[in-house]
User: Fold these one by one.
Assistant:
Number 1:
Amino acid sequence: MARRKLIAGNWKMNCLKADGVALAKAVASRYKAAGQPRYDMLMCPPFVLIPAIVEAAAGSGVAVGAQDCHAQEKGAHTGDTSAWMLKDAGCGYVIVGHSERRTNHAETDEIVKAKAAAGLAAGLKVIICIGETLAERDAGQTLDVNRRQLHGSLPDAATPANTVIAYEPVWAIGTGRTASPEQAQEVHAMIRAELTGRYGAAAAQEYRILYGGSMNAKNAAELLAQTDIDGGLIGGAALKVDDFMAVGEGSPK
Ligand code: PGA
């Protein structure tokens, strides 16, 4: 069975409420008007906007997710938000292990794995991000780094139905410098091969593997046409309705 593409918007720390709600309503109505599109759509706003965005997207089929969660269910963790709270607020997904979290908050694979496990335990789908830095790529370590992050971050309860992998080369995030379709496909194929080793060929074929890093309306179709690229995790281009919708609408059949 063909994997259904997932077009996911990572809003990062952008949008006040009025702008976020307007963006979400526009995405929701365009997605709904398209009937039963052949791709899934997801918006991941900042925590504080989640309830408003859940309301704005209600009934459209566009899912809402968060950009991070804590590994514990509750307790003395000032400033943190648990996966159970996200589920309670109407989220269907949570992103974990984004490179900005790994770098700015010193998140290790072990922490990412614990957060992913919490997301699954709370009933969310998780998007686990991995990716090499430019220095690692230049040193010829791309496949090794991604392999290590993949296995280090995947929780035991992962299945193709509840877990999505996002390959995001750090040097391509927010830089306007996209991985070429061939560069991305090489890593995606390695990820699928590793998933095959871990879960068997049938399950590995069902896992969705997203590409992220300066994906936009212009370069998306070529990336999404690659054998093992099953969608996008989109930052900057997800903040403009036309650009975000164009990624999905232009995706190969
Ligand atoms: P970008 O961000 O599309 O702005 O490069 C992608 C991401 O970090 O998820």
Note: The beta strands are 5-10, 39-44, 63-66, 93-96, 125-130, 163-167, 208-212, 231-234.
Number 2:
Amino acid sequence: MDAGTITTPAVLILLGPPGAGKGTQARMLEEDFGLVQLSTGDLLRAAVAQGTEAGLRAKAVMESGGLVSDEIVLAILKDRMAEPDTVRGVILDGFPRTAGQAEALDTLLAASGQKIDAAVSMEVDDGAMVARVAGRYTCAGCGEGYHDEFKQPAHAGTCDKCGGTAFKRRADDNAETAGARLQAYHAQTAPLISYYAGRGVLQKVDAMASIAEIRTALTAIVGGLA
Ligand code: AMP
């Protein structure tokens, strides 16, 4: 893919319930287009691991499957957006998740003369989501994502990307917490689909398809942004 097809900083939002494949696809779009994946979940997990004040406040909420306060999430996102590597464009993965976050994002982007190029709703059946989430794990070294059923390393126990042999699973990727996360998605995040439809930036992708098919659909969307 020619990474030169995007001429202005692109802002792409990936919307979808847990297990829709947002993180997997965001990483591939990073490679293909030189965009930077901004996952508020990853940023929050890093804050928890570092024991920052925000991390300490977020930890219990994340473990319960609820949503961390807009105040904490916005502070973390703003800091990350201010870093120079975002200049080519960003893929927002797991943000915004509430109407308040969506409005705050509009304000933040307007202040720097940017706008949302596309908000992609990754549509997946609720029934598939728990199995997807429960089977996933990542390379502890480079973060490459894998799945017990859908995406195993070519050589068992060795990361395809970095050759690492240590893997980890998220504490909240269990059936109980996954159910709460799905509920939070429907109650607070799904309404953003009509918010972005009203702005004329919504695109839908069938996220029940294979990883490769979803990648093709997203590549067409991002490649079409000028
Ligand atoms: P994720 O990695 O996107 O599945 O997020 C993991 C957890 O982090 C979520 O279940 C929430 O508790 C929290 N989280 C991540 N992003 C947000 C956000 N934009 N707003 C509120 N909470 C978030």
Note: The chain has nine helices and eight strands.
Number 3:
Amino acid sequence: MGVQGVASTFRDLGLSNWIVKSCRALGMNKPTPIQQSCIPPALHGRNVIGSALTGSGKTAAFALPILEKLSKNPYGIFALVITPTRELAAQIVEQFQALGAKLSVRVCLVVGGLDMMKQSVELDRLPHVVICTPGRMADIMNGARPPKLSKLKFLVLDEADRLFEKTFARDIDFIV
Ligand code: AMP
């Protein structure tokens, strides 16, 4: 712990050695402020609202506790991350794959503009983490083969301020 009781390492935040090593291998040696604030309560199963600028390590602030818990009980679709754009969704997939490489984490991207049937088939195979945009996810959940989400442990609304705008309201409401 640091001088004011603030955790200064990923280990102090409650993460396992394998994940600390994965962070280090990716050049993440010290948690950023948003990671210091969000990771411990997320690991304790609390609801968390985080607010920080782009580039402050927000993605890892939710990806790391998800991967930590997933490593202990990798069963069913474990986490669903909703984000407003396809580009953000693709970046989140990359971070989960990089941080979760040691777990061979299976991540599924569910966004508009890509083959919906393929995405449905992938969801049937129960990936660990699903990263989606609201419209496509709502379409699939409304379709003939809704994904099995009964084992879901984490729901993330990334860029929540944008997701709560009118354009997404119906889809977000439906998914949640
Ligand atoms: P984000 O704010 O999630 O878009 O992250 C911005 C960039 O910061 C990404 O490339 C991350 O890999 C990187 N990053 C996240 N956490 C840390 C950290 N604790 N130390 C160094 N880089 C980090």
Note: The first strand starts at residue 79 and ends at 82.
Number 4:
Amino acid sequence: MQGFSDLSVWVEQVKTLCQPDRIHWVSGSKIEEKSFYDQLVSEQKAIQLNPLLRPNSYAFFSDASDVARVEKRTFIASNNESDAGPTNNWYEPKKLKEKMTSLYQGSMRGRTMYVMPYMMGPVEAPISKIGIEITDSLYVVVNMLKMTRVGDQVLKKIKHGATFIPGLHSVGAPLKENENDVSWPCAQMENKYIAHFPDERLIWSYGSGYGGNALLGKKCLALRIASKMAKDEGWMAEHMLILKITNPKGVYKYILGAFPSACGKTNLSMLIPTIPGWKVETIGDDIAWIWRKTDGKLYAINPEKGFFGVAKGTSYHSNPNAMKAIEKNTIFTNVALTDDLDIWWEGIDKEKPEHLTDWQQNDYDQSKDYPAAHPNSRFTVEATESSVLAKEWEDPNGVLVSAILVGGRRPSTIPLVHESLNWNHGVFMGSMMGSEITAATISDQIGIVRRDPFAMLPFIGYHVGDYLKHWIDMGSNVDESLLPKIYYVNWFRKDENGQFMWPGFGENSRVLKWIFERIEHQASAKLTPIGYVPDIDSLDLTNLDVSKEDIEALTYIDKNEWLEEAKSIRSYYETIGSKLPELLLSELNQLEERLLKS
Ligand code: GTP
Ligand code: SPV
Ligand code: MN
């Protein structure tokens, strides 16, 4: 964390190291933003979409090697190796700095270095944080302008004594004299480094221009660095959506949801309930910062100002609120384009046009079966473009957390929903969450189930065992009744033909309603060895097109499958080592005992 006097020194140092042609301090004004887009279009880095169909919107296409977060090239350079734990790639900080300093040497030649002061969180919230990102990517700048609170007002705060978290980003593609730039400059895979120095709250990112690798406010600051700060300071930084749900009587509650990347946070946070009279509004779709107030209860803010959502699969049918939000003023990355310069992707629910330009900017070859839009294609849009943004979305006091959902893509074993017995059991549920790996990260194991505790596996800036201990600590020394209940949901259970058994999306409101009514002590449940599962009669299934047998199967607890699950959790726990909290091992033992007795 640094102050104003460090800022000019740091900017000078980076200038000397990276040797940009010029420096631009981003003011955050609308005129400036417009000039950035004009420049991007004239440099052929962006395509302006048809203003009649998609006003003030732009499409970008990345290099084929730079399409998602790269976990293999993401490093936690803590001073002690044991602080990074078994789930992070550790790198000795001094060595990493040497390595990256040599890469940064002259890396901005021929380019402009942008200095971006930005704020994560509503301006007056007690846990909001200031970051400064230095970057040589104008694509990053225009995305950050939508995703965070950027500009002069933040610089003013630093001038008046606020501290900031520095983040240095370079795409790692210096230009030789008179060399023509490519549309998406980046470095090759082995030279990409997404580096975090959690002890000194510092981010260095090199070689990638995509998403969480490059928009440093998001995963790097708001999760990896913030999770470490939160652990040290007694709050939480989590990969969670925040939604507001209102029942037909006008009673409302706020619910958080931790689902891994591309597992449904954006969709759930904006869903349109299929049950009459209920309303869902959005507060955040990806990250929640949570703290305890003097009343002993947990409150949450969304540190972001926009949505960087998965495009593929988004349609007026599956997520009409997102589709409406991206009708204008939106950045699209790696989607396909129609001949009249509008967007297209698989699952958009509009027939595939006869001719398309695919995400690699080639004519789409209809005779071959490949995706025209990249599976991790994204839209970037300001939250205020959404018509279902809750009015309190930037309330600095945060919103009271009534329930926390955890979940992922599990084709078997895990029922549609089950409720924790108490806080520690809920932490156990979050600790053992598993999910199929999705296209949100570059991996040769997409579709394989991996354990992803609280959807934070790629985002915990320290030891996973200490992280789970921090969850336990956040619930200790407080009356259980003040704490939110934790619910494990699974929209992704499959039948023997590999089809999803639950229709998902808007129909998930039925599960939200059950949870809402559980908190109000109105819905019934049966106690099973794994927790409370809905009595089928307590779920609102009116007008739902799912057979009674399927609902029974969706809520069925198979003893043998769960005994296998417990075994697998035990071997997963062994990989965490001695920092695994005893209490979680005890939860696992109790689960096994309950299963054996059932
Ligand atoms: P990140 O931005 O990567 O953190 O992802 P996210 O968790 O916000 O996921 P998102 O809501 O964008 O959903 C990702 C994919 O899951 C999309 O292709 C959706 O169509 C699909 N999806 C979301 N909700 C559901 C659901 O309830 N059921 C099914 N079957 N698919 C869903
Ligand atoms: C995720 O992968 O969880 C995302 C996208 O939200 S990115 O910003 O690339 O991390
Ligand atoms: Mn995410």
Note: The chain has two domains: 4-45+73-233, 238-305+391-557.
